[in-house]
Amino acid sequence: MAVTIDARGLSCPQPVLATLKEIKSGSDPEIVILVDTDTSKENVSRAVESQGCTVKEVQSEEEGYKILVTRE
Amino acid sequence: MGLVSYLKSKFKEWTRHGEKLPGVDRGILIYENTSEVIRAENRLKAAGYNVRVMGPPQQIQSGCDLVIEVPLMEHLEISRLLHEAGVPPLKMVPVTGPLLAPVDLFQTVDYGEHLMVRAANMKICIEKATQTIVNISGGGCPDVPYLAFQMVGKTLHETPRPRDMGHTLCGYALELAYKEMLRQCSAS
Fold first, then answer.
1. B111 to chain A nearest CA, in Å?
2. How close does chain B come to A54, measured CA to CA in Å?
3. pLDDT tens-digit series, residues B82-140
């Protein structure tokens, strides 16, 4: 089961902070983050990996990107 | 125009009837581009002057996104030094009112558990409890991804300094943001 964070429309660093909050407080094994800019995609991916999680997949979508993250 | 003539004309601009403007003790140097600001700041600090890089006042329509605030009493010596260093400003303007006051270069946003400091075009964000850097963004310079890779996940005291890694104006702005974040964290 994956939890989804819709960070589209949020300015930096809010997509990163929303993702970190879920990593720390949530328990779902997978997290899906929706972002709408290249910068947010890169920042979220970097932040996720700094927490020991893995970016399993990044899908390009019509309105941005869908980042699939798994907890270690 | 010779140097002496230039300095005389600037002195006239800064004075009224040959006397210092009442209550005015600061001036700002305006430059065409930020790389000149950095060179001038370095030169002035190396010479021991107490100067600050700030944002331009709203009434100033020319120049780049950074200005240097200088003590007005020393503007003649500063002008001479900058001309000799090859970085004369576009203008030297006394701060005679609120609309001519340079604005703080830093913007701080408190996100609760996180704190962000922005300096010019660069942002640094930390987790307050651990002072770990969670995000570096902004700029658009080619070295920003490298700077972010090196800094994210490290604490403010572990991280390498942007000034030692960056080679662009973004690295310079990030160093300013980093120093301001350190200052705020030390004060709290």
1. 9
2. 14
3. 999 999 999 999 988 888 888 888 999 999 999 999 998 899 999 999 999 999 998 77
Domain ranges of chain B: 3-100, 106-187
Q: At what angle do helices B34-46 and B169-187 cross, to 10 degrees?
A: 60
Tokens of B129: 């409890």
Whole-number CA gyration radius for chain A: 11
User: Chain A partners of B149 at a C-beta cutoff of 8 Å?
Assistant: 46
Contacts of A48 (CB under 8 A, 6+ apart): A19, A23, A54, A55, A67, A69
**CA-based nearest distance B161→chain A, Å:** 18
Instruction: State whether CATH 3.30.420.40 applies to domain A2-70.
Output: no
With an 8 Å Cβ cutoff, is A50 touching chain B? yes
Integer-rounded Cα Rg, in Å, for chain B is 19
pTM of this prediction? Answer: 0.75
Taking alpha carbons only, the member of A58, A13, A20, A18 closest to residue A40 is A13
Residue B137 with chain A: CB contacts under 8 Å: 12-13, 39, 43
Pairwise CB contact (< 8 Å): A16 & B116? no
Is the Cβ of A53 closer than 8 Å to some Cβ of chain B? no
| CA dist., res. B91 & res. B97, Å (int) | 17
- CA dist., res. B92 & res. B10, Å (int): 8
Report ipTM (2 d.p.). 0.87
Q: Where are the domains of chain A?
A: 2-70
The answer to whether B176 and B53 are in contact (CB under 8 A) is: yes
Burial (CB < 10 A; 0-12, 13-18, 19+), residue B86, is exposed
CATH of domain B3-100: 3.30.70.790
